[in-house]
């Protein structure tokens, strides 16, 4: 399912216009994104949780030249599936 399919499903399920459904979906995603930017954890019971995971820098190698390069650390979103969702998917 992609974003437009989610919007259509919401509009149909709640009997609202596509425009209103799009506004709701965009608002939810924007708020989730902003929470992650603020290093907050997001938990959706029965579904899973999102958090920012910090990865340390390391020394890598350029595959073309073989030259050693420094790879900086980074912060990336991480999703952990909830128990109920895991059990539902793993029939």
Structure description:
- The protein has 91 residues and is α+β, with helices and mostly antiparallel strands.
- It folds into two domains: 1-40; 43-91, Irregular (HU Protein, Chain A).
- Helices cover 43% and strands 30% of the residues.
- It is built from three helices and five strands, in the order ααβββββα.
- A three-stranded antiparallel beta sheet has the order 1-2-5.
- Helix 1 (3-14) crosses helix 2 (18-37).
- The longest helix has 20 residues, at 18-37.
- The mean pLDDT is 96.
The CATH architecture term of the largest domain is: Irregular
Assigned CATH superfamily of the largest domain: IHF-like DNA-binding proteins
Structural category is alpha+beta
CATH C-level class of the largest domain is Few Secondary Structures
Relative strand content: 25-35%
Any idea how many domains? Answer: 2
Biggest sheet, strands in spatial order?
1-2-5
What is the rounded Rg? 19 Å
Reported by name, the CATH topology of the largest domain is HU Protein, Chain A
Categorize the overall geometry: elongated
- The SSE order reads HHEEEEEH
- The tally of beta strands, per DSSP, is 5
N- to C-terminal distance: 20 Å
Secondary structure tally, helices: 3
Write a compact overview of the structure shown.
With about 90 residues, the protein is α+β, with helices and mostly antiparallel strands. About 45% of the residues lie in helices and about 30% in strands. A hairpin with a 3-residue loop joins β1 and β2.
């Amino acid at each position: 399912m992609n974003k437009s399919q989610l919007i259509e499903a919401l509009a149909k399920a709640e009997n609202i216009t596509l425009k209103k459904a799009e506004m709701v979906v965009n608002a939810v995603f924007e708020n989730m994104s902003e929470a992650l930017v603020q290093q907050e954890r997001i938990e959706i019971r029965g579904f899973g949780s999102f958090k920012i995971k910090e990865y340390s820098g390391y020394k890598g190698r350029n595959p073309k030249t073989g030259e050693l390069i420094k790879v900086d650390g980074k912060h990336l979103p991480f999703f952990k599936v909830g128990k109920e969702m895991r059990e539902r998917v793993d029939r």
